[in-house]
Write a structure and sequence with these properties.
The N terminus is likely disordered. The chain has four helices and eight strands. The chain has a five-stranded antiparallel sheet. Strands 1-2-5 form a three-stranded antiparallel sheet, with no helix packed on it. By secondary structure, it is α+β, with helices and mostly antiparallel strands. The chain folds into two domains: about 110 residues; about 150 residues, Immunoglobulin-like.
Length: about 300
Amino acid sequence: MSEQTSGDPEKGVPPPPPPPKKKRTREKIPNRYLWRRFKASTITNQSSIVFGIIVTIATVGNLAVSTIQFRTAKQNAIDSGRQAQHLIDAADRINDAADRFSKSSADISLGVNSAVDKLGAQADATKSAAETSKDALHISERAYLQTTGEVLDVPNKRIKFIIVNTGHIPPGHLTGTIHESTLDISDIQHSRVIEMHWTEDQSESLVSGGTAVNVNVPKFDEVATKAGRQQVIVTGKITYNDGFPNTKAKEWPFCVSTGLRGTEVKNIVLFPCDSTTELPIAVRMDKYPDPRYRSKT
């Protein structure tokens, strides 16, 4: 065998390759050998070996099943988490939509309420204007009754006056109640009733130009009146409808009394008196509406 020489790099000779490494191999134990040993062992050892093999197989099987269950539970958890997140996202979108709808509804409600308030205010203003116009028309056009032209008819022992309408439309139903009292005033501190009566007349309306009223004064004494010993008082009121339907009845109270005017020559005249004072006294004295004191003429 020839001598092996090392390579010379200077001469261009490469070095020889290294020897191959030996692979370490596990010595295989023949299956027959294991079987012979198993058969040669005691029954107790054989049982232990079989039981160990069964336990090992069961453990491996449980491990495999556990691994599969773990992976399945993990995947289910992941899927459930995704579904839960989808539900959360959907709920968030619903909440956002609900908020937008709520704001939109609030804006619509505010607009509707504002419009309703404006319409209500306009309706109130229109109603107020209509009522004002109606009241103004009522005041300007209604009937106004009053008494005027009071005179003393000495020869016929009467006091006359006229009921007139100063309004624009005729009045409706009217009632005139008149109280007459003739007094002896010789003692001014203790006057005495000579005669008294009341009368009442009704009418469905008032004739154009007015209605003349005559009040009898049967105990009138011209001489006693000029001497300052007698006084006649006529008071009362006119209750009437002012021409408009469904309106409250109006009243015109009146009061006149005899008196003297002049210094050297005394003249009997009629003076206005206070109906708020004289009318309650007259009603109390002639016991209105007691028919015993009602005038027969």
